[in-house]
Amino acid sequence: MRRWLRVRALLDAPVRSFTGALAGALAGALAAALGLAAPWAAADPLLDFSAAERAAILAHGPWPPAPAADPSNRAQGRPEARALGRALFFEPRLAAGGRVSCASCHVPARAFQDGRPRAQGLAEGTRNTIGLLDAAGQRWYGWDGANDSLWAASLRPIVAPGEMGGSAAAAAALVRRDAALRGRYEAAFGPPPADDEAVLVHLAKALAAWQATLVSPRTAFDDFRDALARGDAAAAERYPPAAQRGLRLFVGAGRCSACHAGPRFTNGEFADIGVPFFVPGGVDSGRHGGVLALRASRYNRLGPYSDAAAADGSAVATRFVALQHRNFGEFRVPGLRQLAYTAPYLHDGSAATLADVVRHYDALDEERLHADGERLLRPLRLTPAQAADLEAFLRSLSTPAPDGPAR
Amino acid sequence: MTRRSALGAALAALALPAAACPLTAADGARIDGEVLQVAWAVEGGGTLEAGRHFALRVRACPADAELRRVDATMPAHRHGMNYRPQIEPLGPGLWRVQGLMFHMSGAWELQLDLRRGGRTQTLRQAIDLP
Description:
The structure holds 2 protein chains of 2 kinds. By secondary structure, chain A is mainly α. Chain A contains 17 helices and 4 strands. In chain A, helix 4 runs antiparallel to helix 8, helix 6 (150-159) packs across helix 9 (196-211) and helix 7 packs across helix 9 (196-211). The longest helix of chain A has 16 residues, at 18-33. The radius of gyration of chain A is 23 Å and the shape is globular. Chain A starts with a helix and ends in a 12-residue tail after the last helix. Chain B is mostly beta strands. Chain B is built from 1 helix and 9 strands. Chain B has one helix at residues 3-15, and strands spanning 29-32, 37-42, 53-61, 66-74, 79-80, 86-91, 94-101, 106-116, 119-129. In chain B, strands 1-2-3-7-6 form a 5-stranded antiparallel beta sheet, with no helix packed on it. In chain B, strand 6 and strand 7 form a beta hairpin. Chains A and B meet through helix 14 of A and strand 7 of B.
């Protein structure tokens, strides 16, 4: 029985028939005969993770996290606001011309991404659409972190000319004249005030309240991580060896977890990973422009529309964020959950597949990257087998289907 | 030792506040400089955690020193924090420093600039963040 489990694990896929087991054995024998160093040839079902590796792995959980409150948005967590927000998310009349909605780019069946290299609103943008799963509780929003709350990040595209092209006046007028929308609004916030901008902010906070419910499901990695945490080797052995080896690279030699840290697999901050920042007509300054936009925004956590007092501790990042030369060309470190459904990748959508992402890190341009002194990133220079392992691990951060639990 | 350096050492010894310094273990981690000492602790008694903002209580000896700057860098990575801390005086030789965050695990260096008697000294402490 033990041997049977071992063969199953070595194949990285359930093998439930004698034919499958025989195929696995033959594959191993063939690799040995050809002198190939098959990475799984001598593997145990559970790698001998060191104490440090185990600690690093455990730091990527547990999942899911406790619901995150947003002191700047009193509506978050209120069912009436969530109902309004859900309706607004699919509402094209928020956009100029009524042809696009939030869901046009944030497609629910695609982990709230659109599958395009660059977002297509009323015009084509210069950045890849960011998925919305696990959006609640982040420190910064957008590739440049120009917003510090989910509601401010929801407001921005409504009025951005190239995205939805709407306005506070048009949004408020829609709420006042549409009986169904007005009813939902009044249930959440009371009668709409005369100030159009205040109505727009309420709509954005309702959108945030609904998006805060979008939490990615548990994955095979989470089951493995929890099994390690409780010392359940039998359960841990179900995690494919290729994913285990990729995980070892991720938290070890690859140093991926330095930035892709914690249960969300992001430290929530910004990095320059050597992606060219030239865009049609100029450059994308990334975080540098994001900090400037944040500070100039009336909708930041220190502004008049935050529901928290100005001295609220949740605004600490906004209050103390620094504008630095190195921010130029930095972009937000994305989370990695449900990654399989959010291709293409990187801030400009220039990596079509996960394999392309691994290749990007495998052959980083050090001269370009370290021009400003940063020395964390080095080309990974992986063997093909290691690259496949790393990809296998990354895929284990997604469920087999976009909306389903891990099977 | 020349007469000049001996005189310097004697003056330094006179200025050395160790014997009179009130810093205790309760003040936190201690950094000894040539003529200054500081102790720092995470406010609220918490521990440092990557990706979480924190504030420090800093106490200096002698208490007439002035805390001018607090920063932190990752020397191996050649970058510092993404936030600019703010220093708030709480009394003689005591400050609250808000807005710090170590956004990565790894080797950090905490730096505190203190000024006393027309001279600024940078006290450094290595912090390995798991």
